[in-house]
Design brief:
With 255 residues, the chain is α/β, with parallel strands linked by helices. The protein has eight helices and ten strands. It has an eight-stranded mixed beta barrel, surrounded by four helices. Strand 5, helix 2 and strand 6 form a beta-alpha-beta unit. It is globular and about 45 Å long. 43% of the residues are buried. The structure holds NADP nicotinamide-adenine-dinucleotide phosphate.
């Protein structure tokens, strides 16, 4: 059964020029909004409990503490995009870390994504999906979100969303890594101008080459770690390039 997660990209309600991408456009990707394209940091930090291997199952006080500390470290390192979801139970801690007293004022240009409706257990059907999308659009119309997107949709879900969409579908977050990448989904998103974003972009592999492969395929990434050295490495992806015809193609062929 496909997981339905309607994702809300609650990009900071600052002028586009104030967002972190103005200073470093090469670290960002464009997403569509109702009023034109906006740049979004291409590398996000996730806050799902599965990203914190040290926390015992269902120990949410551990997960929350890790989320708060890691988001703080991410912001200190210059990361400006954070991924959250209602069922991760870490949204309060993300907010607390972003609001941290000593934070560089540019951290107010942070891009946060959070899910608005999630149902991993059943397929609610076309009508509910379309109504959920209209509710997401309302958030944009009310000025509560700048851009809205989806997660873990299949091609049919995307087509039925596009049938009713008045606000662009900015982004689609799916599992994407060298061992699991749906090339048809990438093409479909590119056809409709939807930015694809990878969850579990490492998929058990290590290091920046794996993340860089996604970026060079045109896919933004949400990585997960509470290790500050790993965070620094996950943000340090813009001073090198993989060869398209050897390295990128070879990694794509690993699936
Ligand atoms: N929409 C959805 O359905 C969905 C589903 C799952 C996840 N997500 C989102 O995606 C985020 C990331 O998922 P994930 O944790 O599976 O992603 P991931 O980044 O592919 O994997 C995380 C693992 O990679 C390690 N790691 C990270 N950076 C590293 C580096 N530079 N070198 C070596 N190891 C590194 C981490 O270990 P260390 O802690 O040791 O660094 C951690 O064990 C989640 O937090 C969540 O926000 C979304």
């Amino acid at each position: 059964m496909p997981r339905l997660v309607a994702a809300l990209l609650a990009l900071a309600r600052t002028a586009a020029a104030d967002l972190p991408c103005a200073a470093k456009p090469e670290t960002c990707v464009p997403i569509k909004t109702a009023t034109g394209d906006l740049m979004m940091p291409a590398v996000a930090l996730g806050t799902w409990r599965g990203s914190y291997g040290d926390c015992a199952d269902n120990d949410y006080s551990c997960v929350r503490a890790k989320a708060k500390a890691s988001v703080g470290d991410w912001l200190d390192l210059g990361g400006r995009h954070i991924d959250g979801a209602n069922d991760y139970r870490t949204q309060v801690e993300i907010g607390e870390a972003v609001a941290g007293a000593d934070r560089d004022p540019s951290a107010t240009g942070v891009a946060a994504s959070a899910d608005c409706a999630a149902s991993p257990y059943y397929d609610p059907g076309t009508k509910v999906r379309q109504e959920t999308w209209k509710a997401m659009e309302l958030l944009v119309k009310l000025g509560k979100a700048v851009a809205v997107g989806i997660s873990d949709y299949n091609a049919t879900h995307i087509e039925e969303t596009l049938e009713v969409a008045e606000v662009p579908v900015a982004l689609h977050q799916v599992e994407w890594n060298p061992k699991k990448h749906d090339e048809d989904m990438l093409k479909l998103c590119q056809k409709h101008g939807i930015q694809l974003q990878a969850w579990s972009p490492l998929g058990g592999a290590e290091g920046s080459v794996t993340l860089k492969w996604s970026l060079q395929r045109g896919v933004a990434v949400v990585t997960g770690t509470d290790n500050k050295d790993h965070m620094a490495s996950d943000l340090d992806l813009f001073g090198f390039a993989l060869g398209y015809y050897d390295e990128v193609a070879a990694i794509s062929a690993l699936q």
